[in-house]
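Attaching the record inline, Q. Sequence:
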Amino acid sequence: QAYNCLIHFYKREKTLCRMEDGTNWVLELEEALLDEAPPQHIKMLLAGRPLPASLRTDVWSHCLEISGRKSKIEKFDDVYDHPDQNEIHKAAQELVKQSKSDDPLQLQAEVESILTVYFKTSGQKFEQEITHLLKPIVDLSLTRNEKYCVFQTVLDRFIPKQIETSSIFDLTRLLLLYHDPKLCNHIDSLKISFHQFSRSWFGSLMAADCDPEVTVQLWDLYLVNMDPWIIFFMVTVMLVNFRDNILEVEGDRDELLTRLSSLPSQIEAEDIPDLVTLAQVYSTRTPSSFKSSYECTVFTQPNQELDEEMKSLLCLPVNADEILASELVNFQFFVVDCRPAEQYNSGHLSRAFHLDCGLMLQDPAQFSTACSALLAFQQSALTAQAGGEHLVFLGDGQANSDVDSNMMMAVSRFLQKHSKFISVLVGGYPSFHQEPQAVHHEYKEPAPEPSPNKLGSIKTNLKMKSANLKDSLINYIYNPSTQEPKHVDYSKRGSKLYKNTGDVFCLEDDEDENVVELKDLEKQSDTIHLAACQRVGETGLLSPCHLLITTSQLVVLNPGPRPGTCSPASSRHLSSIVKITSKKRQPEIITFKFGTSQNDEVTVFDMDRFFIPTAGKVTSVVKNQIEKLKE
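Structure, as predicted:
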């Protein structure tokens, strides 16, 4: 019997350790821990896969950097005299009941001492949510001091400060309003505050509401990612995934509150990788300005002024730096300039759409027409890749001005009509001209700024690239297997192969030689379909790209230096696709697995994952083209 158990354990570990591409990733993870690799490397090795229980203690300790640290519990005098000591004792008993420890009495004493030291040294009253944080920690193979360090580090890094204030939950509501305004408005209509159903989610990182096995797997990915904001997006993802169950409750407030409170209990262990991945996807698709603006008051030192500011927000705020960065990179935003026409005409962003919000009161019919024109123009900009799906409204930045008041009324109208991705520029148009806050660096002589004429000439030169380079690049995309001319022997350098060729080595930047217009690719006879999407990296990071499906290839195209351009990142033959999978609760996330197939045996050697808004269309085209190749 012992032999059979050993064989079963060996087979289970072997299956667990073996990736689909045959590499032993767990051994690589063990080596990375021994080499004290940075958490980012651990994150890439884990790549959303379940962490073996045997490595959980080492991974958590490594990512939280608790090795060799001392804690306040080392000086504990074993005096259990906190005013709420009875509640602490009962909480310790309950935690031990759910533990797998062989020595429950010893563990109970350990847990009670950890909680007592924390509440005594922090001067806080007993809080049940905080005790739940020990659930995933108590069974780790650590000393009492190390467990206290893990507990304290999780509290300091990942738990929002002053959870009893509503500002944290107001911010959570704004994130749901940004991604699903209809769902948010429905919850608001029944006068349900986010504080009423999600307090324990934030206070315990789901430990109070999820099954213990689910909690530890959630923390595996949470701690490795080292991003305290993930909890906000996990809440958003849970609500969006259960939106049908929420929307079907029309007028029963108590019933809806019960359903909302029970959402984490419906999560199973197999759902965790998808939940964390989707939270990262939502984070990437959300303006990040609010993180830098409110991170200090949320996770470090509460600031009453900032808390009041969060409570007063109508929608998600965006700062000027993020919009300008987007203008240079990916056109994530579609800017709606709500200032009077004379201010707009005196200066505005080149792609900004002017909307006279004063018409909302003066001529509602004309304002409605202007809003329809705005949405049509945005759709045209999206098609031409000259504007994003995220609407950001800007005013004149003057406190209590009629311009900003009218703008806010317009924003309210869009939110009432359940328009997604609505935000407001902090400080209005003048914020584009404000100097950034001073940062203390070593002084360097500032480089002269290029003149407008010089910038114009650079743009002109970029646009005047030779058509021959385009043709050669298109030929490469559609014929990736074409071999380049080989070098000839030194004694034959006078042959025709080298005749009239330029220098082999050059110091000039030739990056634009790999750039092609998307519209030129669409016109090619071999093109079957071209789709805009985002590539999901191993760490969950999204990067914009295009998928080009030709008669025989699946090509990934990265954005070029100018709108409407791209450069090839990879190209694979369609016959190498052995499997196409999608996320059950987010069908837009598609995974292409590449490998070989012989009889019923499939060997996967690589995979690519994408967030594709038109996933159904893309997968259908790929499957149809693969079938045609088989014929």
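The two ends are 53 Å apart (CA to CA). Confidence is low (pLDDT under 50) at residues 1-23, 437-470, 481-511.

More tomorrow.
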